[in-house]
Design goal:
single chain; 280 residues; alpha/beta; Rossmann fold; globular
């Protein structure tokens, strides 16, 4: 069986999706990845579902130019609101971050309460609750929007920073009192604050990283479809952003655990040059 050398396309509202890329590169070191960060229009978490869906379609339109074998929606907000439409319209498979995280949370919960923290838009969509109910209709799910965690993560504050711990505690204390067994990190920025979240949550609550579970799901889908690359050498990572490539490079190192070198700014003229229907 020959491998599929085409790239994996990944998009996010900004830089948080690089935590998914980090997991993909760890599991699939031979794959080429093209990443698009919509840094000009971040955050998605406070926008309407109609706006997020439109942005997600445009992001996929851009990625289709690179002939990907699969597109990863590495944004919980876009996965929660736009995934059904993307699945219906895209000519390639698409994988979101909500369903893999919900599945793993259900498997680990053993009937216990599942808590989800995410952006306002993701929580408002109720996507995690609905996804969890697909695997266990009797599951008890509690959800909490944590809008300040994204800017805190991007600001570069460490998990030992008193401000980080104070904000995390303010969000999580009401959740911890309800004694959940699982806490889903329903935003790709949150793994950067994992140690602070774990400290506040305590040893009795297991954390599930939706981005990590998504990377596992991508591996399974590519393997099942015979689409894994058979490249012996390390794959490449090429990044495109809609604004401020220098900031993306600087912050990207924290999200990826290594330097981000190949970053290109995509102007609005380039971004909208191709109609979505033509891209199909």
């Amino acid at each position: 069986m020959s491998g599929d050398a085409r790239c994996i396309g990944v998009f996010d509202s900004g830089i948080g999706g690089l935590t998914v890329v980090r997991e993909l590169r760890r599991r699939l070191p031979g794959e080429n990845i093209v990443y698009f960060g919509d840094t000009a229009r971040v955050p998605y978490g406070i926008k309407t579902s109609e706006t997020v869906t439109r942005f997600a379609r445009q992001n996929c339109e851009f990625l289709l130019r690179f002939d990907p074998k699969l597109i990863v929606v590495a944004c919980n907000t876009a996965s929660a609101t736009a995934l059904p439409e993307l699945e219906a319209m895209l000519p390639v498979p698409v994988c979101g971050v909500v369903l893999p995280g919900a599945k793993e949370a259900t498997l680990q919960s053993e009937g216990g309460t599942i808590a989800v923290i995410a952006t306002e838009a993701t929580i408002a969509s109720d996507a995690y609750r609905r996804a969890i109910k697909q695997y266990d209709e009797h599951a008890r799910v509690i959800q909490k929007p944590c809008p300040l965690l994204v800017p805190i993560a991007e600001e570069g504050r460490t998990c030992t920073d008193p401000i980080v711990l104070s904000v995390v505690r303010d969000y999580l204390d009401p959740i911890v009192r309800l004694d959940p067994k699982i806490l889903v990190l329903g935003c790709t920025h949150y793994p950067l604050l994992r140690d602070a979240i774990a400290e506040v949550a305590g040893e009795g609550i297991r954390l599930v990283d939706s981005g990590e579970q998504t990377a596992k799901a991508v591996v399974e889908r590519l393997r099942a479809g015979g689409k894994l690359s058979d490249r012996a050498e390390a794959g490449s990572l090429v990044s495109y952003v809609s604004d401020n490539p220098q900031r993306f490079r600087e912050l990207g190192q924290r999200f990826l655990d290594h330097s981000v070198v190949d970053v290109t700014w995509v102007s609005p003229e380039q971004f909208y040059a191709q109609d979505f229907a033509q891209a199909r």
